UniProtKB/TrEMBL annotation:
Protein name per the record: DNA-3-methyladenine glycosylase I
SUPFAM superfamilies cross-referenced by the UniProt entry: DNA-glycosylase
């Protein structure tokens, strides 16, 4: 018998594996939070499957998403990234990854960790939704609006409310698995 999954991932083995093992699982690891932040910003205007297919290339290109290294990227590294056909070669997004790494560190210094800061928007507990169909899930919420506004105020780029809601879904800050999905009760 086939597992019941959220409709958005069905039919693509990479999507299904991501859905089954990562999507909606609460993330508290600093480096993984930064990875999702970078990937979500690069996803802006594109499909998530495009990013997933290039994820390993992004890991290599961005030094395994070590924000301490990314924060120090220079013009030569930026140029190399813009020549890398394995990732999304968008100058604004490459620059945003560097800027966001620098601001990520500032948040760590202010709050003790990025995890403490970002999870405070949901009172350190995942929001449990009860969607019957994956299309019922909103593109953004009041929480993602507030998060986006605060991140922008702190100098982050490509962190609009829709991007931040996708980040919340990916990192388990919100459980948007449909109620009939086998992962709903697991996360």
């Amino acid at each position: 018998m086939q597992k019941q999954r959220c409709g958005w991932c069905v039919g693509d083995s990479l999507y299904e594996a991501y859905h089954d093992h990562e999507w909606g699982v609460p993330v508290h690891d600093e480096q993984l939070l930064f990875e999702f932040l970078v990937l979500e910003t690069f996803q802006a205007g594109l499909s998530w499957i495009t990013i997933l297919r290039k994820r390993d290339n992004f890991r290599i290109a961005f030094d395994n998403f070590d924000y301490r290294i990314v924060a120090r990227y220079d013009e030569r590294k930026k140029s190399a990234l813009l020549q890398n056909a394995g990732i999304i070669r968008n100058k604004l997004k490459v620059n945003s990854a560097i800027t966001n790494a620098q601001n990520f560190i500032k948040i760590q210094e202010e709050f003790g960790s990025f995890d403490s800061y970002i999870w405070s928007f949901v009172n350190n507990k995942p929001v449990q939704n009860k969607w019957k169909h994956h299309k019922d899930s909103p593109a953004k919420t009041e929480i993602s609006d507030k998060m986006s506004k605060d991140l922008k105020k702190r100098g982050f780029k490509f962190v609009g409310s829709t991007i931040m809601y996708a980040f919340m879904q990916a990192t388990g800050m919100v459980n948007d698995h449909t109620i009939d999905c086998f992962r709903y009760s697991q996360v």
